[in-house]
Amino acid sequence: MPEGPELHLASRYINTVCAGLIFSGKVEKSEVSKNPEVLFESDAYLISATSRGKEIKLTLTPLKEEKNTLPGRGRDREGLSQNGLQQPMDLVFRFGMSGSFKLTSAAELPKHAHLRFYTKDSPHRALCFVDVRRFGRWEVHGTWQPDRGPCVMVEYEKFRLKIPPFEKARTVLEALQHRKQQSPDLTLSKKVKLKQENPDLLELCHAVPMEVIHMGGMGYGPEPSDDAAAFEEWLQCYGVPGMRSLHDGNGRTIWFQGEPGPMAPKGKKSRKKRSWVNGDPEPPSPKVTKPVPKRSSKGSSGQEKVAKRSGRKKGKELVQGAENAKAHEARKPNTRSRRKASASQASLTNEAPAADRKRQASARRSTGAATAAPRSRRVKAE
DNA sequence: CGTCCACGTCTAC
DNA sequence: TAGACCTGGACGG
Predict the structure, then answer these.
(1) Which nucleotides on chain B have any atom < 7 A from a protein Cβ?
(2) Same domain for A120 and A246?
(3) CA of A301 and C1' of B10: distance in angstroms?
(4) Residue A348 within any structural domain of the chain
(5) Taking a C-beta distance cutoff of 8 angstroms, is the pair A340, A334 a contact?
(6) Distance in angstroms, CA of A309 to C1' of B6?
(7) Same domain, yes or no, for A249 and A357?
(8) Which of A116, A173, A190, A372 has its CA 20 to 30 A from that of A205?
(9) Which nucleotide comes closest to A313 if you measure CA to C1'?
(10) Greatest CA separation found in chain A?
(11) Is the peptide bond before A71 cis (omega within 30 degrees of 0)?
(12) A102: closest CA among A229, A216, A3, A224?
């Protein structure tokens, strides 16, 4: 559950489902987790959350001035004042690749629930930090990690200044400059309108995550019904049939539409893990790939799952270069790929009809895009 | 069964 | 700048 907007949704979710809930007792950590114990104990406490970029902070607040009923028992706990009262505690979480929060029945904890906060009243429930891959971290008495970039959702203005000097900004800046020169004689309102219809890259860094937040869902909707499909449907580039992808210097898959651009990794470097360990020293061939959503014909008995991300790709299966609608029409059709196919078609035209502008802008989206560059070089956004 | 892949850091060379 | 840290789903044989 790692992307910026998702962390924000997680904090909203927590504040919603924990509103009015009273928690009690100790905070429980799974055996297997290597994260620190949370030595917090209170007869009655509240949980609230805030997020900042890809971090989320839980605040545990004891309800009243309760006495520690068992003197000495709490000695090993942190955050106790002299008289044995439990003080409020902040926990800062990072979600790694798979972290999330879930309020569930305490009787049936979900798998991989590595930190549990139990409600006071029965039927007991548990707010769980669920994290399949355990890349997620939490820190007791945590604070926002100091060397992180601003939050694209709530601190967007901070991206306006202090652009790292080594950022390859030429293209971006030239584009902005170009835009400026284009419309020197327009009225202010016309300029504003133009800007809204053609948001620049920086504005999109804000607008796109905000769109996800307003969409809601992501497992953090009011109902447990959940709606991952809506998000998949919303994605314009990432994992979408017809879009292209390649691997950057760190082996990360970058999704995009159209030309990869002058900084594109040159073939050889792009494969991190060798897939040809024994014999068959086949050169790691392709550079630019079209995702071939390999939905094998087997098992597709009408109710196939929504195409999940990209299919598995091997060299020989990769389709090179300038492919087209034909290619993916031949592929497994589903509603999603169909819709996307037409969307990308539309955006190939420079002059999209005005009604399609918004869609055209979003066709550039890939939620993975901002995570592409190595940390040290990145505009400190995530 | 085995291989590859995944929304991210984190740290040891 | 490579691995390391993990589980599990999709796919291939």
Answers:
(1) 3-10
(2) no
(3) 44
(4) yes
(5) no
(6) 9
(7) yes
(8) A190
(9) B4
(10) 76
(11) no
(12) A224
Q: Check which CATH number belongs to the domain holding A18 and give it.
A: 3.20.190.10
Provide, in whole angstroms, the distance separating residue A275's CA from nucleotide B3's C1': 8
> Tokens 């652009």 map to which residue?
A163
**Distance of A14 CA from B2 C1′ (whole Å):** 40
The two tokens of residue A159 are: 């991206």
Nucleic acid strand B within 7 Å of A252 CB: yes
Among the three residues A106, A140, A174, which one is the final residue of a domain in this structure? A140
A136 touches strand B (CB under 7 A): no
What pTM did the predictor assign? Answer: 0.63
Question: Where in the sequence numbering do the catalytic residues of A fall?
Answer: 2-3, 54
Kindly give the confidence (pLDDT) of every residue in chain A, 382 residues in length, as a single tens digit, with 9 standing for 90 and above: 578 899 999 999 999 999 999 999 999 999 999 999 999 999 999 999 999 999 999 999 999 865 555 444 545 566 777 778 999 999 999 999 999 999 999 999 999 999 999 999 999 999 999 999 999 999 999 999 998 988 988 888 777 744 433 345 555 555 555 555 555 677 777 766 776 776 766 778 888 888 888 888 777 876 665 577 888 888 888 988 888 888 887 788 888 887 777 677 765 433 333 333 333 333 333 334 433 333 333 333 333 333 333 333 333 333 333 333 333 333 333 333 333 333 333 232 222 333 333 333 333 343 333 333 332 323 333 3
Q: How many domains does the structure of chain A reveal?
A: 2
For residue A343, give its domain range.
236-272+287-295+308-366
One domain for residues A128 and A249: no
- Concatenating the DSSP letter of every residue in A295-361 gives --STT-SS-PPPP-SPPP--GGGPEESS--HHHHHHS---HHHHHHHHHHHHHHSSS--GGGHHHHH
Q: Is residue A146, in this structure, part of any structural domain at all?
A: no
A133 touches strand C (CB under 7 A): yes
Where a domain ends, among A97, A123, A140? A140
Q: C1' nearest to CA of A375: which nucleotide? A: B9
